[in-house]
Amino acid sequence: IIFSIFTAFIASGFIxxxxxxxxxxxxxxxxxxxxxxxxxxSTNKILKFIHDNAMHSYSTIALIxxxxxxxxxxxxxxxxxxxxxxxKGDFTSQEIQTKANIKDAKQIILMYDESKxxxxxxxxxxxxxxxxxIYSKVKGKISxxxxxxxxxxxxxxxxxxxxxxxxxxxxxLLANSTINPSIPDFIQEILKFKDGKGFNETDIPNDxxxxxxxxxSTFLKEKKSLIxxxxxSMQAEFSIxxxxxxxxxxIDSFIKAQFEKSNKKFAKEESKNYIKIKPEDDYExxxxxxxxxx
Length: 294
Fold this sequence. Notes:
With 294 residues, the chain is of the alpha/beta class. It has helices at 2-23, 41-52, 69-78, 94-99, 123-135, 168-177, 183-191, 213-224, 240-243, 250-261, and strands spanning 34-37, 61-65, 84-88, 107-110, 141-146, 162-165, 200-202, 228-238, 270-277, 289-293.
């Protein structure tokens, strides 16, 4: 009798955990996981990409949205090899973000959310969520999907790793097809990353810093069988130092002294990714450059 009671107690605990997980009520304890906030057709494509490219061993994937539990069960059944966790709720809420252990996530992706019932999706919610996450001092990289590019000025680009305009790529591919009919098919095949072939972003070896783009291209082609398509360079867009003149005049010194007296800090430089598509062969590789390769 005691053994039966003990077994029933353990089984009940497992069932309770299973029910809570399906309803999105559990807390995420994992670290270095991926958090995807919101849901639309693009979310399914992200999961399919990870699944099809055998990246399921990468980490746990936590989905924060307001889909009903049957819909989530369908998603889970579609990708049985992915370690999917579900948090049901409004992803703009700091309480919900905490349940997803967003502070310890390796990557956070904010989608243009279409999962909230009886509420039209909006970029404002995405931006609010992004700012809440930034203020939480998360460790991971933050990527953002917006519907309308007019909201770009509202984004703290120094804290956001990547911003994608919803269906912007698709629109550009359709426009390009009027001149180059085969290009869209080619691009879509590359984006599928089949057999490890596709676009990638890679670090540049330290001994190539200061060398030319031509030398980098030759090195990566011969040593790693990679074709260099361009350079992405993280550069500062603005800082108070750029406003002040270079000769460190008395006026500059006075301005700096006044800032120090007021106990106000200089505004930090905002960073932005600058893309150089196949620069000239004599372009000099900088310490903050990364290579876009095929």
